[in-house]
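Researcher: Final request for today, and then I'll write up notes for the group meeting. The sequence and the SMILES for manganese (II) ion follow.
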Amino acid sequence: MVQSMFPKSSTKRALSSPTVMRNAKKPHLATAAMAGVRDVLGEGRWKSWPAPAQDLKAARVFMKQCRRKDSSAGLRLPTIIVPDKDADGLSSGLILYRTLSALGLPPESIHVHFIAKGASVFSTSERARLECLAIAVSGGDLEGTPSEVRVIYVDQGSRGGPPLLQPLLDEGRIIVRTMVIDHHQSEDFPEGSQVLTACKSPPICTSSLLAYLMCYPLESSIPEACAWLALLGIFGDLGPSEIKFGDSEGDWPVSEEMLRLGDTIRVVKKKALSDAVSLLNAPRRTPEFDVQSAWDALLSADGPTTITNNRELRRLRFRINEEVERCSRAAPRFSKDGCVALLRVDSQYQVHPVVAIRWASRLKGKDLKMIMVVNPSHHPDPNLVSFSCRIPASLRKVAETAQPNLQQLLKGYAAKVDAGFLTRVGGDYARGHKQATGGIIPSAEFELLVTKGMEIMAKSVRRVDGGPVDGQRKIKDFFSKG
Ligand SMILES: [Mn+2]
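Model: Predicted protein-manganese (II) ion complex:
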């Protein structure tokens, strides 16, 4: 069964991998000449882009140190990559994986770890899982010299707090060094982690682009081999139309690296990239949450078309599309101030973000700022609801500074509930991006947010699956939460 998840790439293909860009011409010099300018990242206007220069430099040192030969034992450091589950996270993870390999770290020293459904790298259960893994891969030489394990968190979101992993495990014999590579908004970061974030360097790039630009100078094969991976994350997080490469009038730099990406799009084609993104995003949306199958498909792919031909992923996407269709039939209800349209869905699939995006393109209104979709059935803990928020698609066209800040909006409604709300809901509230956020919070708190914060009036009957509604009980359940 596992076997069938791998695309059957022909021997020919496999031999010439990474093939996608090998035969591509390199017209970027001509494109740059046409543009008439040539930005240099890390200089002038782009001094702190895609991230602060000293952080980029430190991240490159961290990468190179992973294959550092220990003078006594000739050791290479076991390195664990912890990528997020979506196209941006997976492609960022693979860029790091390819770079570490190219730098000389053998495959048995590179480990890839995925977060369990509903958990995050900040949750206690995940810290425990990662600590066990770190001990397991450290070599287990309990009597010997301290061994070191490195962990790279990619695209996982950022927040303050205690160290992601205790730097000393197992009575001090294992040293863990952690690096966070991210682009989600945050003022605070975990104690003790080295951080590379794009969140303070507008225009904020994706984790995949950040990883690509960080790894670009580290090894000569990376610029070509990883360009399509950088694009997967960009298409995944920003969509196909957000970045125009090589446009000197546009928001993004016109640099060698960016022009190369523009050329790569012309070779691999936008449609194949978009299609590959939606297929890679499929496994993590199913109730089984089989992120590993998306990673396996990506790891063995030599370009987006290998992924678009993957039957297993196509089958999963079909199931999700059906679920999105079903859940998109929910009807919105509006907050008293007209700023929020709330939709309620009930699904074990992670379709709430997709339904939000879909309704975001349908709804507009003078005051409308936020489409919010709540799904009480997604999180394994039945007391928690997951919700996703997006700005109306019509507002995507206005200047970024004029777009609503949904994280702020959510915090405003939280303040209307009561002073203790933010503490009670914990760290998984209003994380992510200004225009795309959400949360996982106790359902009772969510209902307080709905009634006291946003002042959305309760509906007479809760929507259940289109089937006949068990009137009395459902109505009572619904009101009792307010
Ligand atoms: Mn991302």
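Model: The domain at 2-313 is CATH 3.90.1640.30 (inorganic pyrophosphatase (n-terminal core)). The two ends are 46 Å apart (CA to CA).
Researcher: Thanks, that's everything.
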